[in-house]
Amino acid sequence: MQWARRMLLAGVALAGALLMILIRLQHPSGWLLKQQRGKDGEEDLDSLTTQTRSRKDPCTKLKQLGIHKIAFVLKTGATEIHDKLSIHLLSLFACLRSGMDYAVYSDLAQRIGPAEVKDAVALVPYLAHDAHPEFRHYDAMKEHIRRGGDAKEMAGEAAWHLDKWKFLPMISESYHFIAEQDKQWVFFMEADTYVSPYNLLQWISRLNPHQPLYAGAQVVIGDTEFAHGGSGILMSGPAVLALRNEYLANQNHWEGIIAADCCGDKVVAEVLLAAKPPGPLHRSFPLIQGETLSSLDWSEIHWCRPAITWHHVDAAGIDKLWKFEHRFLRVADTNAIQPGITFAKYFDAFIFPRLEAAGYRLEGWDNLSGDWVFTSVENPREGQAEYNVAAQTAEACEHFCHAMPECVQWAWRLSSCRANKIVRLGWKFEGRPGMGSADDRIDRVGREGLEGAVAGWVKERVEEVRKRVGKCEGVDVWETGY
Fold first, then answer.
1. Transmembrane ranges (predicted)?
2. Is the pLDDT confidence value at 23 over 50?
């Protein structure tokens, strides 16, 4: 009897052990996550990563390529954060540690998933807070949330005006990445910016982190040339420190400048020029640039060069670009300098297949043509498009493009014909995304003007462009400063 009882208990124990093994095999990451939790409930991410990720996993490969040298700082606002932050936490930031490898700044402190969101506006002294009208929106939003409202309900132009106050305190505070986390670089981005970590790592391998380097896509307002914040800004440790020292030494002065200016990214350049040592802009276009796959002019300037950033990209676009990047990370040689993911590769992956699948013609579409602009309205007023019979019908517009040797695409809608010398994809008229400060570039048309709207591309000329500009031999693909 005792023997039978022992055998039964042994059988139960064996069955239990087998069940645990099956559970672990079925859900290995969940089991490892529990095993890696410390006394304070936090995971040992490095240990977890090595046990659950393969050598082809993008996070593992980025670590091998040197992603630990860069801190990423994302700037956003409380009115948009829930729409835009999550995709970053599921892509690049999933490979990084909040507070140690990346930071998120907004105008409302909160925790979203693994990200501890900091309030950059709270870093501005109360003296400036009380003196300038932009902060009334900040106070109103805090009160609205305290009463149970959602920050998104406070979206509008007032939130945009508040944004300029975030730049200097955010960059100044990010120096802790250099001092405490041993980072060499800080990359500043916005919530609708996609940054290619693969291309960024290839680029910084050619730059000196010990010099005060301030780099980005150059924009000029007045007499100031500066790096456009939405396109992304790269700063070395010495540059961050130089800005921090100048800003903190003359904080009242610079807050007065911000109050009177339009743009925080512009004032960043002015602070760096006044710093010791001064930090003039390292022009970095087109590697760092502010277009999307749909809005970019696919020209020779871009073609052979690596695309480090894209701007005005929605969550679906970031997801698409991140997955595309996986292909290159899987085969990247960590012991050799790589050529980077060029604009040409993006064109061949996303634009060319789309045009081919559509038969080089898309209904209800705007391909952003603008080199020739005609109207079928006779005697147009001054400042309007030139009269031309090409605007009378889609067929006439297409015929005009074919008759012009430089024309590669055309677009027709009621009373309007547009044609272009450079390939652009564009969007469907209905449901087109906004482009923030660049929104005025999009031709807004009422529903009545869209009947029969169509866009087309000249197949042979698009293919000829690919062959002609695709010869990248002898080109310094990392050249910038256009």
1. none
2. no
Q: If 0-12 CB within 10 Å is exposed, 13-18 middle and 19+ buried, where does residue 433 land? A: middle
Give the per-residue pLDDT at 436: 54
Mean pLDDT of the chain: 86
Which two structure tokens, joined as six digits, stand for 200?
Answer: 């960024």
| 329 and 403 housed in the same domain | no
- What CA–CA distance (Å, rounded) separates 69 from 182? 8
Q: How many domains does the chain have?
A: 2
Q: What are phi and psi of 104, to 5 degrees?
A: -120, 130
Confidence of residue 334 (pLDDT cuts 50, 70, 90): low
Give the span between the Cα atoms of 384 and 373, in whole angstroms: 9
| Least trusted range by pLDDT, from 44-48, 313-317, 342-346, 473-477 | 44-48
Question: Tokens standing for 136?
Answer: 């009334």
Q: Which residues contact 317 (CB under 8 A, 6 or more apart)?
A: 194, 292, 293, 310
| Of residues 467, 372, 374, 379, the one with CA closest to residue 420 | 372
Asked whether the CA dihedral 174, 58, 307, 429 is positive or negative, the reply is negative
- What digits encode the pLDDT tens for the residues 307-331? 999 999 999 999 999 999 988 888 7
Same domain, 375 and 306: no
386 and 303 within one domain? no
374 with 390: CB under 8 angstroms? yes
Hey, what are 215's tokens?
Answer: 């780099």
What does the block give as tokens for 404? 């012009």
In this structure, the answer to whether residues 396 and 321 fall within a common structural domain is no
- Rg from Cα positions in the chain: 27
Instruction: Tell me, yes or no, whether 160 and 259 share the same domain.
Output: yes
Q: Are residues 343 and 362 in the same domain?
A: no
Would you place residue 222 in the very low, low, confident or very high pLDDT band (cuts 50, 70, 90)?
A: very high
Tokens of 235: 């700063």
Contact 107, 78 (CB under 8 A): yes
Domain assignment of residue 443, given as a range: 358-467
Q: State the pTM of this model.
A: 0.85
What letter represents residue 405's amino acid? P
Cα 194 from Cα 192, distance rounded (Å):
7
257: exposed, middle or buried (C-beta count within 10 Å: 0-12, 13-18, 19+)? middle
Alpha carbon distance 357, 359 (integer Å): 6
pLDDT value of position 475: 77
Note whether 313 and 321 are within 8 A (CB).
yes
Residue 437 has pLDDT above 60, yes or no: no
Q: Are 268 and 171 in contact (CB under 8 A)?
A: yes
The residue out of 292, 313, 347 marking a domain boundary is: 347
What is the phi-psi region of residue 325: left when phi exceeds 0, alpha when psi lies from -120 to 50, beta otherwise? alpha
